Amino acid sequence: MIYSKNSNFQIKEKKKKKKTQGGSKIIIEKHHHPGIFIARGKEDALCTKNLFPGISVYGEKRISVDKNETKENEEYRIWNPFRSKLAAAILGGIDDTFLKSGMKILYLGAANGTTVSHISDIVGKEGLVYAVEFSHRSGRDLLTLAKKRTNIIPIIEDARHPQKYRVFLSMVDLIFSDVAQPDQARIVIINAHHFLRTGGYFIITIKASCIDSTADPNFIFSKEIQKLQKESFRPFEQITLEPYERDHAIVLGRYRIQKFA
Fold first, then answer.
1. DSSP calls for the chain
2. What's the average model confidence in pLDDT over 153-176?
3. If pLDDT is split at 50, 70 and 90, which confidence band does 68 have?
4. Distance set, CA 95 to CA 53, 88, 105, 109 (Å)
5. What are the CB-based long-range contacts (under 8 Å, 24+) for 204-208?
6. Would residue 23 be called left, alpha or beta, if left means φ above 0 and alpha means ψ between -120 and 50 degrees?
7. pTM value?
8. pLDDT at residue number 112
9. Which end of the chain is less packed: N or C, by CB atoms within 10 Å?
């Protein structure tokens, strides 16, 4: 089973029991993080409410919940922590994702759009996800995804050069970075200086082996956090991503908040 180490989920609401194709009953419950749910059945799983029902993004399982005659059916997408570092961090027990409906997100290192699609579900149709990806092969998948999910804006560019895509962006509420590069902290910093509002939020995944494969991962994590702190980033939380990812950490916090003290 997939459980968070923070097992005492704060459940606010329960949905009706529904049957899957195999006949087993599943209950959809609200997670304490906004826009995220838990599918409780034979195996518990994290999920998001599908913003565009009937459409799968990466072959993930979907759960349909029948409503009464006055409402449309709801659909939930299983969120695989082995394919999404953010899902792994949520199951690891992070205190806050900072993600809310209506937010504008800059996602660096969007790849094929797996995590991007779940963030798209969370921020909803009033929100936006600017998805930056350098690989043209992955970029084609992002373009296809954006045709179906209108709150995703794909940007096929190198995140090291934010000036090349500044014409496409307004200021954002949160930067999410999953760029496995030796200069990943610098990439977040320069993008924040361009696009992240004062008091905005950041989430950065750090892959220690991309920076120095011979050093202790905890030492690498500490050094990267120090780089962020020198540039007005204030980390609130750090968590490693085992058992889903080796030598990875995720760091969450806020940017330029001293004015609000």
1. ----SS-------BPPPEE-TTS-EEEEEE-SSTTEEEEESSS-EEEEE-SSTT--SSS--EEEE---TTS--EEEEE--TTS-HHHHHHHHT-S-----TT-EEEEES-TTSHHHHHHHHHH-TT-EEEEE---HHHHHHHHHHHHH-TTEEEE-S-TT-GGGTGGG---EEEEEE---STTHHHHHHHHHHHHEEEEEEEEEEEEHHHH-TTS-HHHHHHHHHHHHHTTTEEEEEEEE-TTTSTTEEEEEEEES-GGG-
2. 95
3. low
4. 29, 13, 19, 23
5. 204/175, 204/176, 204/177, 204/228, 204/250, 204/251, 205/85, 205/177, 205/178, 205/241, 205/248, 205/249, 205/250, 206/248, 206/249, 206/250, 206/251, 207/180, 207/247, 207/248, 208/247, 208/248, 208/249
6. left
7. 0.86
8. 92
9. C
Q: Which two tokens stand for residue 188?
A: 């977040």
